[in-house]
Amino acid sequence: MKTSAFVIAASVASASAFAPAPKAASSTALNESLFKKISNMDLWAPVADSNDYGGRSKKNLKTGSLTDRSYVPSGLTKAQYEKIRADADKKKDANYQKNVKKAGVFQDYTEFYMKRGSEENGSWMKLPNRGHDMAKTKYDWSGEKNDAPAYTGVGALFKK
Predict the structure, then answer these.
(1) How far apart are CA 137 and CA 147, in angstroms?
(2) Among 31, 82, 101, 102, which one has the highest count of C-beta atoms within 10 angstroms of its own C-beta?
(3) For residue 74, is pLDDT > 70?
(4) What's the half-sphere exposure (Cβ side, CA atoms, 13 Å) at 50?
(5) 0.90 cut: is pTM over it?
(6) How far apart are CA 19 and CA 134, in angstroms?
(7) Which DSSP helix (H) or strand (E) runs through 46?
(8) Cβ of 122: how many Cβ atoms within 10 Å?
């Protein structure tokens, strides 16, 4: 009897060893909706002003340095090519700084309107350009002087 009780107890113990452990009840409810979680992410928080006008100076932008395995155009030495690339970088930076200085400079519409002479009677419509500011051109196209380029068709094509 003792042995049969021992065999039964041993079989119950070995069967329970292979049974899965009971799990605690887990909840599938989210504390916050998925859309809210994604929309509340601010990926630009560390670099919030990186896309502001003039923000290029705060970034670590540079042209890569040439190594022994870098491409150098034929006919140039490595030093000559580095100088060309450095000059191009300086030119690009100077152009960018020139444009940054123009940031926020606007023409006041009211001042333009009054300078044009815009009244309710419409006298500005009789002005030569109807009040428009005209852009400058490289050449004088009035025809008073013959300094226009020959390829435009202005002037004599064949000299006598």
Answers:
(1) 13
(2) 82
(3) yes
(4) 9
(5) no
(6) 89
(7) none
(8) 8
